[in-house]
Amino acid sequence: MSQQYDVIVAGGGAAGLMCALGAGQRGRRVLVLELADKVGKKILISGGGRCNFTNLDSRPEAFLSANPHFCKSALARYTQHDFIALVGKHRIAWHEKTLGQLFCDGSARQIVAMLLAECAANQVEVKVAHRITGIDKADRFTVTTDHGAFTSSSLVLATGGLSIPKMGATGFAHDVARRFGLRLTETRPALVPLTLNVPELSGVSLEVVTRLGRASFREAMLFTHRGLSGPAILQISSYWRGGQEIAIDLLPDVDASSFLKERKRTRPKAELRTVLGEVLPQRLAQHLANEGTMANARDRDLDALAERLKTWKIVPTGTEGYAKAEVTVGGVDTDELSSRTMEAKKVPGLFVIGEAVDVTGWLGGYNFQWAWSSGWAAGEAV
Ligand code: FDA
């Protein structure tokens, strides 16, 4: 005999637990089925173990999707302030680090404990180490696992994206959605380091503005032995497709042309590289400038160098892939889902939430906010 529930949530991550506790609050009988031996593994490692759980500035423009309007409804109905209130109710101390990013003072474990406490208070059952081996739909969904079968009237796919396969990320939600006839958008690794062959600069870091199309981010950039990383790069990586050029302003606060010409007047004997070293890390200055003194540099060469410093154009050779990507861009096509409830339009009772959906946030707590908001939206409807 299979055990009966109102709601089965596949995946005990951020979105799944939020959905479960919301549905539980409404008196629904809820089961969470988690493949791993514990829930919320990505929450635990997030934000360097302190979980950047939301962003004060969360707004629809901070999310990428083939339909940029889709996220608006859920984000408006369960906001960053709602989540902050929940964190406050559980007396979890937090602080703003930078750019509206909120972190636990203590540990990400507090966020998982909070979600589990809310689930327990609302009689949600959570089963870990359960592998789903089959899903069938007749009047109800039947979910078969390696520990028996369960049925429900609603099934929520909350198994996340493809990032970090080593941590158990699978294409499960995508595969099930596809099997039920839902379309997917193209997926690719996002918030991911980019590869570029400049090993001689490994270790150099500086604040820059990265630009691609209409997207631009002013944050730190770090040269690694494989290419480029740091928040300015991770952010722009979500917009990048193979072969595209990224423009980087290496001197966001400096009018480079005026600066160089002024130094030519006031420090004519100085090496160009030394002058550049006033405003750039020394090794980067060495890399970018030719040998020679300021006096020997023609104004038009200084203009060309200034242009290069303000718009350093790179074409990355690739990304470091899902192994290093914080999130996945793309997923279940939002056209297939109700933006109010996350229910599949053509499969009543089937819901998709969190990273499995084609909605991806910027770096800085936005992805968890999407997990909370989309999870809550479904929790109100299942
Ligand atoms: P999530 O991945 O959280 O949960 C999915 C769950 O489903 C997992 O528990 C998984 O084990 C389970 N599962 C998978 N396959 C299954 C199957 N077949 N059956 C049953 N269960 C299955 N975001 C942010 O806003 N702030 C931050 O600080 C960070 N930091 C961060 C660091 C690192 C290293 C990574 C990789 C990612 C982040 N993120 C982040 C992104 C954030 O972790 C991510 O967007 C959310 O966890 C997505 O929530 P979901 O619930 O959709 O998936």
TrEMBL record:
Residues 188-327 form the RsdA/BaiN/AoA(So)-like insert domain. Residues 6-380 form the RsdA/BaiN/AoA(So)-like Rossmann fold-like domain. PANTHER family: OS12G0638800 PROTEIN. It comes from the Bacteria. The keyword Flavoprotein applies. InterPro entries: BaiN-like (IPR004792), BaiN-like_dom_sf (IPR023166), FAD/NAD-bd_sf (IPR036188), RsdA/BaiN/AoA(So)-like_dom (IPR055178), RsdA/BaiN/AoA(So)_Rossmann (IPR057661). Gene3D superfamilies: FAD/NAD(P)-binding domain (3.50.50.60), HI0933 insert domain-like (1.10.8.260), Translation factors (2.40.30.10). Its cofactor is FAD. Keywords: FAD, Flavoprotein. This is Aminoacetone oxidase family FAD-binding enzyme. The keyword Cell division does not apply.
